[in-house]
Amino acid sequence: MADCYPIDLSRTQELFAVLCLAAALVGWQLFVPPIIGLADQGDFVRLLGPFGYAPQPKGPEHKYWYLTRKFVWDPSYREPRWEQISSEFIPASLAFLLNRTFHNPQSFDLTLFGMVHAAFFLLAFGRLLFVTRNLRRHRILWAAMLLVLTDVGYVAYWNSLYTEPASCIWLLFLVAESIAICESGRVSTGAAVRWSVFAVLLVMAKIQNAPLGIPLAAFAVAIACRAGNWTTRSIAVMGAVGTLAAGVAMYRTSQPAPRVTNIYDIIFYGILPESDDPVADLKTLGLDPAYAKYSGTLAWTEGTGIADGYLVNALLEKMSPIKLSLFYVTRPARLWKHTQAALLTAFSLRPEFCGNFDASAGRLPGARSHAIALWSHFHWRYLSQVGTGIVVALALAPLTGVLLLCKRSLRPARRRWTEMGICLAACCLLAFLAAAFGDTWDSVKHLYLFNLLLDACLLFALGAALQLSEH
After folding, report:
1. How far apart are CA 23 and CA 31, in angstroms?
2. Can you tell me the distance from the alpha carbon of 1 to that of 180, in angstroms, rounded to the nearest whole number?
3. Which of 49, 227, 381, 448 sits in a 20 to 30 Å window from 163, CA-based?
4. Which of 382, 397, 310, 304 is nearest to 347 (CA)?
5. Is the pLDDT of residue 470 over 80?
6. What secondary structure letter does DSSP report for 358?
């Protein structure tokens, strides 16, 4: 088969050793007391509700500050107006199936989700190790991957009921399949199917992922152009169409409640506070200038305008993410000003308002783990210092890559890797823009995919440098 590699026993043993080390680092954080996870800041209901469970206690006792470990059967907890379709339902369904099979279906422990998430992660990580084992100096790349992906900034999400784990899992599988295609130079039918499935699942993990359907579809077309037969080419094209359709479906199925709160936050906590003339901005947006009194408020804060039915109806009828995006695009200075504000927290891997420990650990409310946080510290301490340069580089990288592809002398192998690099950079930039201009609250968690893709870009650059160093 085109996507198979010759077996090297020594490298297989190395791979197994690295995978075992990753399992040990992840397992120690998730399952050895005091366990590490993320507290609920209000989003758990979106996943719990459809399955009929509720936290115990279901009041504010643990919210934000401590992990809630126990969840019980309680269909009344459901909030349909906040629910959103997500590919996170796949690991969630498996977790609940295991709970019904081996435990009391009336309750479950949060670590069950941690176990399922960790299992998916290790499968994806193992696949990544496998497809990169023939690269030059692969040990350096493996060490970097281990450092990044076992950091608490990513691992803490496994013991949670957020949808971010799905973004990480499907992205890792997707990157692994992309590397396999680039490395082999040929596209098998199986590779095209796997790549298409993982692309759709990534886009459907969270609504903020929807814009990624555009560059992923373009990469799928590039895969189709390299396909050796009609069947594989058709599958790749269907993957492109399916990825775009998944993005549209995520946008169209967004519920009015989260949509209006996001729009409210963008306008009244983003656009107006950053404006020299809030009244004029409201007129431009087609809203009553009297609403300027709500400037600086969030949908959840005291004095919010979200309780004003007329304002809510106006937001639903007149506003949309596309219209707000056009507001910024037609005002480059405002766009840049908001980008600079977003960059203040853009490189943090530790979400606000989410403690890492359960109350029995005896830690202070909202305490964070620093046991395996070297990469988190690097992100916050060093990448944040060059944030503007990173955004500019991400914007220029696709253009530079396209110019490189125009060279007829470019060898096929480098052409494939260049296409993948363009796709990664474009996805990373879109993930930043979607988070920075899609909401102005809980921004660190919304920027999770951006940081994950940024790390993928950095690892890609490291791998490229290692390859070129041999020439």
Report:
1. 11
2. 12
3. 381
4. 382
5. no
6. B
CA quadruple 24, 376, 338, 40: dihedral sign: positive
> Which residue from 324, 321, 309, 207 is spatially nearest to 274, judged by alpha carbons?
324
Tokens representing residue 199 in the block: 């692309």
**pLDDT range class, residue 9, cuts 50, 70, 90:** low
Listed in sequence order, the residues at least 6 apart from 352 whose beta carbon sits closer than 8 Å to its beta carbon are 345, 442, 443, 444, 445
pLDDT digit string, tens, across residues 353-370: 899 999 999 999 999 999
Q: Strands 107-109, 70-73: parallel, antiparallel or unpaired by DSSP? A: antiparallel
Mean pLDDT value across the chain: 92
Cβ partners under 8 Å of residue 175, min gap 6? 128, 424, 456
Residue 364, classified by CB atoms within 10 Å of its CB into exposed (0-12), middle (13-18) or buried (19+), is exposed
Among residues of the chain, what percentage have pLDDT more than 70?
98
CA–CA gap between residue 189 and residue 124 (Å, rounded)? 20
Beta-carbon count within 10 A of 167 CB: 27
The closest of 405, 11, 421, 2 to 178, measured between CA atoms, is 421
What is the CA 203 to chain-centroid distance, rounded? Answer: 9
205 CB-near residues (< 8 Å, 6+ apart): 86, 87, 88, 163, 164, 166, 167, 170
For residue 64, the SS3 value is coil
Residue 228 confidence (pLDDT): 81
DSSP secondary structure letter of residue 364? P
Task: Supply 288's token pair.
Answer: 């009553």
Q: Report the pLDDT averaged over residues 2-7.
A: 49
Inter-residue contact 411 to 404 (CB < 8 Å)? no
What is the residue whose two structure tokens read 């009609």? 230
**Across-strand partners of 55?**
71
Q: Are 201 and 166 in contact (CB under 8 A)?
A: yes
User: Across-strand partners of 53?
Assistant: 73
Cβ neighbors of 218 (< 8 A, separation 6 or more) are 240, 423, 426
Query: pLDDT tens digits for 26-41?
Result: 999 999 999 999 999 9
Q: Does residue 321 contact residue 438 with C-beta atoms inside 8 Å?
A: yes
pLDDT reported for residue 1:
38
Q: 3-class DSSP state for residue 373? A: coil
User: Whole-angstrom Cα distance, residue 173 to residue 171?
Assistant: 5
Interior/surface letters 415-428, b for 16+ CB within 10 angstroms, e for the rest:
bbbbbbbbbbbbbb
